[in-house]
């Protein structure tokens, strides 16, 4: 598989990450089919593309032709079979549940052409945990984008022990062609680079909140105005999803059994109440839906 062989991409999941990864691919000239089990999610993703592209033209960030061509490049389908059949590269951005990912990858192995690379955008599941479910483990790789995926430049590519050099090289180059800045992790590590680092800030911020030392708003204010981060940890969790923070902590805790990895009481409470951030209209802040 050579980078120039990649013409068509399948993005699985039209949610928080998938709809923007798909659009980024289409903007970079790839034919992209975005698929999801939820028709409602697919409709939302299509509506986003229909609003975003003209918005970029109005802002002078895209020409009419670029927007038109990106819109023609992207399509939406509720059929995994249809979306993945002719894909040269698959980016899975489905819900962060291990059994779901294993099921998707074993289906992909049957549907896709033998050379197709199967990447996961998972925030924390290393691809060696998924590679056993397919007959092409050398072609299963982490390709991790950041939220909002149309804006954030970084992509982490992780070369687990089963990943071929060719797969790592093609994935790095695809990220570059999608106008991202890829970094290569030479070994698998939980959280990769960014979430590994971010976890400590988030954990300590939740500790300060749970101890009643300061409000979420004031902790965000401190991080933004003293450390220069564009968003404090609570605003960021609202953006990426409090449900995701819960799943990340829970998976980690089940793996290590260490107290520090347990989801904080606030996260558990917000998870149960479905206060998941922007996507549900309320998290640490309130949003107009
Ligand atoms: N979707 C697409 N584009 C968006 C967007 C969104 N949700 N939000 C903002 N943008 C674009 C705007 O269109 C604008 O583009 P332009 O400058 O080219 O016209 C640009 O981003 C700046 O937007 P705004 O001026 O409205 O807002 P801000 O300057 O406040 O920027 C932000 C918004 C880019 C989200 C900025 O606050 C930021 O960088 N926040 C930090 C995000 C971050 O840390 N992401 C990583 C999260 S960790 C992660 O994803 C890992 C995962 O595994 C959990």
UniProtKB/TrEMBL annotation:
List GO BP terms, alphabetically: fatty acid metabolic process
Q: Where is this site: Important for catalytic activity?
A: 144
Any single Pfam family the record assigns to this protein: 3HCDH
Keywords on record: NAD, Oxidoreductase
Query: Which amino acid positions bind NAD(+), per UniProt?
Result: 13-18, 36, 96, 101, 123, 147, 279
Residue ranges of every copy of the 3-hydroxyacyl-CoA dehydrogenase NAD binding domain listed in the record: 8-187
Q: Where is the 3-hydroxyacyl-CoA dehydrogenase C-terminal domain?
A: 191-287
What family, per the record? Belongs to the 3-hydroxyacyl-CoA dehydrogenase family.
Molecular function GO labels: NAD+ binding; oxidoreductase activity, acting on the CH-OH group of donors, NAD or NADP as acceptor
- On whether Oxidoreductase is a keyword of this UniProt record, the answer is yes
Its UniProt pathway annotation is:
Lipid metabolism; butanoate metabolism
In its UniProt entry, the species of origin is given as Metallumcola ferriviriculae
State what protein this is by name. Answer: 3-hydroxybutyryl-CoA dehydrogenase
């Amino acid at each position: 598989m050579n980078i120039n062989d990649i013409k068509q991409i399948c993005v699985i999941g039209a949610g928080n990450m998938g709809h923007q990864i798909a659009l980024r691919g289409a903007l970079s000239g790839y034919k992209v089919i975005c698929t999801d089990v939820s028709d409602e999610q697919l409709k939302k993703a299509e509506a986003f593309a229909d609003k975003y592209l003209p918005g970029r033209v109005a802002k002078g960030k895209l020409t009419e032709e670029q927007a038109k061509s990106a819109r023609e490049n992207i399509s939406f389908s509720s059929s995994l079979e249809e979306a993945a059949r002719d894909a040269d590269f698959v980016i899975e951005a489905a819900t962060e549940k291990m059994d779901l990912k294993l099921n998707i990858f074993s289906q992909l192995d049957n549907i896709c052409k033998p050379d197709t690379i199967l990447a996961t955008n998972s925030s924390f599941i290393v691809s060696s945990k998924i590679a056993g479910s397919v007959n092409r483990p050398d072609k299963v790789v982490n390709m991790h984008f950041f939220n909002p995926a149309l804006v954030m430049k970084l992509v982490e590519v992780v070369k687990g022990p089963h990943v071929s050099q060719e797969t790592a090289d093609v994935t790095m180059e695809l990220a570059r062609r999608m106008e991202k800045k890829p970094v290569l992790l030479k070994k698998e590590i939980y959280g990769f680079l960014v979430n590994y680092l971010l976890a400590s800030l988030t954990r300590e911020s939740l500790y300060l909140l749970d101890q009643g030392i300061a409000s979420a708003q004031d902790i965000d204010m401190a991080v933004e105005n003293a450390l220069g981060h564009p968003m404090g940890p609570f605003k960021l969790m609202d953006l990426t999803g409090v449900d995701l923070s819960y799943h990340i902590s829970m998976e980690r805790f089940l793996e290590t059994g260490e107290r520090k990895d347990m989801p904080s009481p606030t996260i558990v409470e917000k998870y149960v109440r479905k206060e998941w951030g922007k996507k549900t209209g309320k998290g640490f802040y309130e949003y107009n839906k």
